[in-house]
Amino acid sequence: MFGLTGPSGFSRFSTAEEVTHGIDGSGLTAIVTGASSGIGTETARVLALRGVHVVMAIRNMPAGREVKEAILKQNPTAKIDAMELDVSSIASVNSFVSDYKSSGLPLNILINNAGILAPPYMLSKDNMELQFATNHVGHFHLTNLLLDTMKRTAHESSKEGRIVNVSSRRHQLSYPEGIRFDQINSQSEYNALSAYGQSKLANVLHANELARRLKNDGADITANSANPGAIPTNIFRHHSFFSGLASIFGRFVLKNVQQNVFAGSRNYMLCSIAPKG
Question: Which of 38, 107, 126, 229 could bond 261 through an S-S bridge, CB–CB 3.0 to 4.6 Å?
């Protein structure tokens, strides 16, 4: 907890670059949702740095183009593309997958990272509570539609595929009954932080069940959920109080984006591109 080096040789303050040093991701293709800011941007940058062809699946295309340009400026040989995706919209997910499959690209890695934290009560375009739609349902649908592509890629390349759901420790603090399947859209019962926890709990359950099914099917793909820890990013944009605290005290008690838990625990970056074993 004090940043001491563990058995892996890394600490909670190790960066993604440090943890992935020496790993060659050439020949791998990854989709990272929500890659136009925060953890998603750093994940895309470091994967590209290690030779992975990264497809940034993003809602804000102008911001995504800026990220792409910045990555290419630092790493001119990076293979990186941006494709439009609003994970809160089923139609957008369908369109993205159709375009992706039409491109003929393989898919080794899927990182379901895009998310929204505790906004005022809102419904998605599909009339679903926005956090559940964005954080869980959209990614659930995206994963299902891309599974055949991932299975084919794993078989043809003889390389294990990786699926990572970005969850949160808040999954332990959902509503008292867990997921309110019969009250997902209830405005009168809505609690912004509990609804966020509900969506993150769904991320964990999805990864757990998907991992079990993939193993039973004999598919050479792993599925994991990962908690990135407390990191001051724009995910706090709907809460000025928390955003202000993170800005003032964050550098003393929180990790920065480069020190996200994908690096520290290796659940994020290494579970994506490290060789088996």
Answer: 229
Whether the CB-CB separation of 237 and 243 falls below 8 Å is answered with yes
- Strands in the chain per DSSP E: 29-33, 53-58, 80-84, 109-112, 161-166, 221-226
Measured CA to CA in angstroms, residue 86 lies from 180, 184, 245, 253 at distances of 24, 20, 29, 32
Given the residues 175, 190, 196, 268, the one annotated as active site: 190
Residues near 86 by beta carbon (within 8 Å), at least 6 away in sequence:
59, 92, 138
User: Please, which residues have CB within 8 angstroms of residue 80's CB and are 6 or more apart in sequence?
Assistant: 44, 48, 53, 54, 55, 56, 68, 71, 72
- pLDDT value at position 236? 47
At residue 264 the predicted structure's pLDDT band, cuts being 50, 70 and 90, is very low
- pTM of the prediction? 0.85
